[in-house]
């Protein structure tokens, strides 16, 4: 019976070591993606599309990493439960139960991290969307200002042309020896 317990413990520890190796590599790869995409998200010189695409990629990587972290915590917790089940020594069992309590607390923390990742990503999305909305508003305001300026410039140009035409017409009336009443009638025509 003792031999079977020792084999079970060795098997549990071997599986945990193998899972931890795979976890460490996968976690590092996901963290690399998270970090690289964060640089793109934070780069306000990038387009809205590039930043939202980076956020989507980062969100997927963050979710995958959070789930991976949670799975690893659950695996450690399960391994400790199995070790407790085959441990006969009271002191060793008490130490393992303490480790299990810590593992449970770590798993709860990982579950919290999964929820926080979703909230953080939603906030980032709102911030990027808000920045894009502000950018579009600025462009629209600039276009509206230019349109208003163009209208005012056109009005000013037409007004000057009318003044010039009136001046030429008055000069022509002077050459034709028109009366003051005729000149006044011309001025009234241009005043309309």
User: What sort of overall outline do the alpha carbons produce when their principal axes are compared?
Assistant: rod-shaped
User: Runs with pLDDT <50, length 5+?
Assistant: none
> What's the total number of strands?
0
What string, H for helix and E for strand, traces the elements in order?
A: HHHH
- Main sheet makeup: none
- What structural class is derived from the secondary structure elements? mainly alpha
Average of per-residue pLDDT values: 89
How many helical elements? Answer: 4
Strand content: under 5%
Radius of gyration: 39 Å
The N- to C-terminal Cα distance equals 114 Å
Residues in helices, as a percent range: over 70%
Characterize the structure shown.
The protein is mainly α and 192 residues long. It contains four helices and no strands. Helix 1 packs antiparallel against helix 2 (48-86) and helix 3 (90-175) runs antiparallel to helix 4 (180-191). The model has no long low-confidence stretch (mean pLDDT 89).
